[in-house]
Amino acid sequence: MIKAVILLDDVGELILQRVFMGSFDKTALDLLRTHVLGGSISQPILRIPPHIYAYKRCDALHFFCTISAKTDTMSAITFLDRFYKAMGAFLKEKELAGNLRKFIPLIHELLDEMIDNGDVQTTDPEVLKLFIQTRQKINKAEESNQQITVQATGALSHRRQGIIYKRNEIFIDVVESVNAMFNNVGQSLHADVSGKIIIKNSLTGMPDCSFGFNDRVVGAGASGPRTEVAQQVAGVSQAGVVMDDLSFHHCVRLGNFAVDRSIAFVPPDGEFQLMAFRVTEEVKEPFSIKPIVTVHGRNRMEIVLNLRCGIPSNNVAEHVIVSVPMPSNVSDVTAIESLGKCRLRKDGQAAEWRIKSITGGTTATLSMEVQCVSSSSIDLREWRRPPLAMNFDIPMYTASGIEVRYIRIIAQEGYETEKWLTYKTSAGTYQIRW
């Protein structure tokens, strides 16, 4: 019985997570990342409470599946091997070794055919190709029928006729999650941003909306920046943002986007996700931490964390939490903070430094003395320290540098529209080695 399938890369980044039974929360995922980054996985079966995992590493990919205590472990390991081979049958070698996130829908479809309610079904790649090709043909036929209906009647499947509002408004929320990994001297090893644009609207009739922002990629999956001439046509500056893995709501007219980079659409009524994207170049990490650790014998250590908020001075980060992992035999933690408060969690697994708000450009320091039980077998001089983790929220700021440059709404009814725009950046997997 397979409860969930998780796929991580060599730096602990989540590529895919599919839950078939039960649950798999962020805490369990963070523990799994810690083992991958620590290089401590040497067995095909491992127990990381509350889960039991079957594990297989293929090149730079780490495959896990959670299993029940009664599951035949050999069958779970065999499934992971066949899952990897099935992916290889559908993807080219360079695609399998490259950015797998572009092929997440295909991988999900593979899992749908291979597992049913936790039970392994078909694993033969040739049989899987028959099922998935058939499904693709059906989807193309449905899309073709929808296009014919729109051309013949002028109707839109995602918006009904006759919508009327007394007050016409549109809200655009740019929401980003920044992932980063730093070494023990505060240097960035990896950073990327996963973002989405959420639209909430109450607009009368069938409004034609469009907006543009400062990105300079030719299109989704493009290999490089556009030419200077194309940038001038689109009104995009050289200081744009390179965006990857673009995906759009079906209301977006992709022809307009390919020609002049404008996002044109007739929105569904209410709230929906207009687009999703990733940024992997020139990411602005909001925080950096330089840790200094001094170990005194086997039972005591001193930790100094120098935190710097790197956002502009007119921005404020809120709900900042720095989690410092503790050894299981910790007995006492004494902390001195220049800002915020630091307390040992009730479960004893980490000390949390909480800062309610911090202005951009500000620095803060935390000094800690950690005392451990002397009778324990754990020696702090040999203890492998899991990475520090951060959480935060930053209103009206984007780590990618994306900015919405204009919003236009054309309605036959001729009404005026109130336009609202917000930005928000939060921590994804934000870790610091120490």
Report what the structure shows:
InterPro entries: Adaptor_comp_med_subunit, AP2_Mu_C_sf, AP_mu_sigma_su, Clathrin_mu, Longin-like_dom_sf, MHD, Mu2_C. One of its GO terms (cellular component) is clathrin adaptor complex. It is found in: Membrane, Coated pit. Belongs to the adaptor complexes medium subunit family. There is one protein chain. The protein is an alpha+beta fold. It has three domains: 130 residues, 2-Layer Sandwich (Beta-Lactamase); 129 residues, Mu homology domain, subdomain B (Immunoglobulin-like, Sandwich); 109 residues, Immunoglobulin-like (Sandwich). It has seven helices and 23 strands. The strands form five sheets. A nine-stranded mixed β-sheet has the order 11-13-9-8-23-21-16-19-18, with no helix packed on it. A five-stranded antiparallel β-sheet has the order 2-1-5-4-3. About 7% of the residues have low confidence.
